[in-house]
């Protein structure tokens, strides 16, 4: 049997011998929609607490072991990096690899302002 769209919602597919899709049937009967329950990421057994990704039992166990690693329900892991680091710490120092003259030459080759000026000059030449 071929599949057709539900005539009521026009989103879900049904077989030709059915009148409405399962979602529409539930809505017409007045049943509440089923919400999927998230399972705890630690124990994989119990439903999670609202706004958290762990269940109440795991949350209590984690907070009793180590309250320093708990902030607003999100577990943090210390990876040895200062959380208030700046990009300057990450950017490598290129002055050792490239001489000043070579760096200045590369900088002028990559100048966006210079490229814009050249394009403007070319446009002026075409207009004349």
List the helices and strands and how they pair.
Layout lengths: L2 E3 L7 E3 L6 H8 L26 H10 L4 E2 L2 E2 L11 H4 L9 H10 L2 H16 L1
Antiparallel strand pairs: 1-2, 3-4
Give a structural overview.
The chain is mostly helical and 128 residues long. The chain folds into 3 domains: 1-34; 37-67; 98-127. It is built from 5 helices and 4 strands. A two-stranded antiparallel sheet has the order 1-2. A two-stranded antiparallel ribbon has the order 3-4. A hairpin with a 7-residue loop joins strand 1 and strand 2. The radius of gyration is 31 Å and the shape is flat. The chain starts with a strand and ends with a helix.
